[in-house]
Structure formats: structure tokens, C-alpha cells
Design a protein that fits this description.
The protein is mainly beta and about 425 residues long. It contains 2 helices and 25 strands. α1 links the parallel β19 and β20.
């Protein structure tokens, strides 16, 4: 298996080297390419079927493979420890044990060479559960697990603090033209950490199926949407919830869709064309501060429907009563504070609002010699104002070497 990553390296023991896992794709560094040869996808399973004296039917099934093994290496023997995939038994209409999530329609998964296929956009996973099947309906209570973004945005944590199982209802329809599945899920998202705790609810809907095209070709698809889906979508692409500054949980909205067309060229050759798309809406609390009402109005206009709270205030004296994991001072705002007392006042306000381990970013210009020279009037830029007028902006520069202050005068003409 040959893998080429354009934007960073992947460790040799990372599962992202074995198959496509979106959350393991590296970004922000120099890319690397790798060749891997292994037999870790090999599976061993055991199945038994029993017809009991009371007329009931019981089956057992156990399956292991060797992917994502935490043991073994490729130095001498290339040995890897087995990993449990399925372990369950059924009694008539009941199933007890671990198998495919009821929310996941494995029959809709494309026949791709990669282990999962459209990993970024499919529901995928296995859970311990209790499931009841009657006719076309299935109902299940499954093992819960909460996957959370911490408030600083730098860590993803899992918590086993849930008090209720994930509840799933599913309807399956099979016809000559193919099959269709509709599933809904409701779940609790909960964490407990160092005395802090909170919980919220999540839900989701997944529609999927396979449509026959001609004698052998087929089209497989899945569309899923929800709030707090977390680990169910995209092989745990994003957590189910995020913490705010107070430690409260907020479920994250996400949606995924894929389609795959399989074509048989002859008895031995077939191909699959698969496309997938995922959207995640993790609303971040953003507050914008400016002392000029006109600048705030312009910012509101440019921001559109973004969830931003705009506050009229002075950077030297603002008290919002909450903390932020990131505070930015763009537009060289710090340079416009000409007195030391003003700068210290701004930094004190920033310190008051900055969360523990938070970050403060200042945008500034490096004082090159060109910024310390007087200039004649020059054209700077132009724009279209609200009255549909073309406004031309020009200006002059003057540098005071004694006070070390650069004065800019702007002229607007239309």
C-alpha cells in the first residue's frame, strides 16, 4: 500500500497509515510518502447456529482482525495482536453483544479497496448493545461514549461518564429494486473531569440504501445529519460536543453525504466511483470590540449571519465578565496607543479576559526605514460606498523622530 501525504508526516504505528481516517490527515508541515506491506486486515471468525428444543433459534458469532494493533512490530516477525470486531449471540429476535452500530447501514457501504471507503461522510462503527428486531423494525440500546472538544480548542477528550445508553430505532425495506434504510438516534453527551461536569443531548437521522441499475450495476448512498453525532460520523472526525468558558457542553452540528456507482465491465472486472461530502458547524463564541460606532456598523455588514457579538467599547477599559481562549488585536491597534499608561491599561484588560493557557495575538508592523520617511500625497485604495459612489482614498505620511510617532493623514474624494 502506497500513501502520499502532501502536508505532513504520519507515524508508522498510526492507523491512518492502514486506511483513510480523515482526522489523522496531517496539515501544516512538509509532506511524506510511504510504502506499507502487511496482512493486518486478515479476519478470523467463528459462527454457530443452534435450534433449541423449545423451538427457539440461537446463533453465536466472534470475529477478530489485526488492524490498529497496539502490539507487534515490523522488525523481525511482523507479528500483531488480534483486535475484537464482533462478539455477540442472538436468541430469536434478540441480539446481545458487540456488532455493527444499529445506526449504521453496512449494506450501503461502497465496495472500495480502502478499508472504509468514504470515511469522511459515512456513519461507521461497532458497539456493544442489546437489540430487538421485529419485522422491518430494529430497536437498540447501545454503549455510550462522549467525545468532547476542550474549551481551548487544542484537545479532544473522551469521557465514559454517561448515565444513559444511546437509543436507536431503524426501519429496513427490501425490494427487487434494492433496499432503503431510515434510522434515528438519541443520545446523552456527558463529561466529568476534576470536579466539573455537564451534560447535553444529541440526535441524528440517517437515510441510506442501494438502488439496482440494470442487471448488475448499483448505486449506494447515505445521507446523515444531526447535532451531537460525534464519533458516529466520519470515523470520529469531530467530537460530539464542545466546552465553553464555563465548562458547559454544546452539541456540534454535522452532516455527511456520499454516493457510489458500481459498474460491472465483465465477469471479472468492476469499478466504483465514490464521492463524499461532510459539513461541520462548530459555532465559536466570537466578540468584536470597537470604540467607533461606524466601524462596528461596517463590521456587522461584512460579517453577515456569522454568530458574532459586537460591543462598543474602549480597548483601554473594557469589562465583559467572561474569558476567551484567544484574543486578537488586529489592525496595529496596539501601535495607536501612544502612551505607556494606555498600553498597560489595554494589557490589563486583556489579562482579565484571557482564559488559563489562552493566547493573545497582536498584529504589528516591523519598523523599516521606509516607515520613518515623510511622503507626499499618494493614492492608497478605492472602494464603493453605501451611496454607490466610487471613493478614492489617498494620504500623506510624516514621521516625528523625537516622539517616535508616525502621523498619517487620509483624504477621501468622490
Amino acid at each position: 500500500m502506497y500513501s502520499d501525504y502532501s502536508d505532513g508526516p504520519v507515524a508508522g504505528n498510526d492507523a491512518g497509515r492502514d486506511f483513510y481516517i480523515p482526522s489523522t490527515v496531517p496539515v501544516g508541515k512538509i509532506g511524506e510518502a510511504y510504502l506499507d506491506m502487511h496482512a493486518q486486515e486478515s479476519r478470523i471468525n467463528f459462527k454457530s447456529t443452534h435450534n433449541l428444543d423449545n423451538g427457539a433459534k440461537m446463533t453465536t458469532f466472534v470475529e477478530v482482525d489485526f488492524l490498529a494493533s497496539g502490539q507487534g512490530n515490523e522488525v523481525v516477525s511482523n507479528s500483531f495482536s488480534p483486535r475484537l470486531r464482533h462478539a455477540f449471540f442472538t436468541y430469536n429476535k434478540w441480539l446481545f453483544g458487540q456488532t455493527w452500530m444499529t445506526f449504521f447501514n453496512v449494506g450501503a457501504l461502497p465496495e472500495n479497496l480502502d478499508f472504509v471507503g468514504p470515511a469522511e461522510s459515512t456513519i461507521f462503527g461497532r458497539n456493544p448493545m442489546i437489540r430487538y428486531t421485529t419485522g422491518n423494525w430494529q430497536f437498540a440500546a447501545e454503549n455510550p461514549e462522549t467525545f468532547v472538544w476542550t474549551y481551548d480548542g487544542r484537545n479532544r477528550k473522551t469521557y465514559d461518564s454517561n448515565k444513559f445508553p444511546d437509543l436507536v430505532a431503524r426501519y429496513n425495506l427490501n425490494r427487487d429494486w434494492g433496499n432503503f434504510t431510515a434510522a434515528v438516534i438519541g443520545r446523552e453527551l456527558r463529561y466529568e473531569d476534576s470536579g466539573d461536569s455537564d451534560s447535553t443531548n444529541g440526535y441524528g437521522v440517517s437515510l441510506s440504501g442501494k438502488f439496482m441499475i440494470g442487471a448488475r450495476d448499483d448505486f449506494r448512498w447515505m445521507a446523515s445529519v444531526g447535532k451531537g453525532l460525534g464519533r458516529y460520523l466520519g470515523v470520529a472526525l469531530v467530537p460530539g460536543a464542545a466546552q465553553d468558558a464555563d465548562g458547559d457542553l454544546h452539541a456540534i452540528e454535522s452532516a455527511g453525504i456520499f454516493g457510489s456507482y458500481r459498474h460491472f465491465w465483465n465477469e471479472k472486472w468492476r469499478s466504483n466511483l465514490t464521492l463524499g461530502y461532510t459539513k461541520v458547524d462548530n459555532d465559536v463564541e466570537i466578540t468584536g470590540l470597537d470604540i467607533v460606532p461606524g466601524m462596528l456598523a461596517r463590521a456587522r455588514s461584512k460579517a453577515g449571519d456569522l454568530p458574532i457579538e459586537w460591543v462598543e467599547g474602549d480597548v483601554r477599559d473594557f469589562h465583559l465578565g467572561r474569558e476567551f481562549s484567544l484574543i486578537c488585536a488586529p489592525g496595529c491597534v496596539f501601535e495607536h496607543l501612544l502612551l505607556r499608561e494606555e498600553q498597560e491599561a489595554m494589557l490589563a484588560c486583556v489579562h482579565e479576559h484571557l482564559a488559563p493557557e489562552g493566547r493573545f495575538v497582536i498584529a504589528s508592523r516591523f519598523p523599516t526605514p521606509g516607515l520613518m520617511e515623510d511622503t507626499e500625497e499618494q493614492d492608497w485604495f478605492s472602494y464603493q460606498d453605501e451611496d454607490d459612489r466610487q471613493v478614492r482614498v489617498s494620504g500623506t505620511d510624516h514621521y516625528d523622530p523625537v516622539r517616535q510617532i508616525r502621523h498619517e493623514t487620509a483624504y477621501r474624494r468622490w
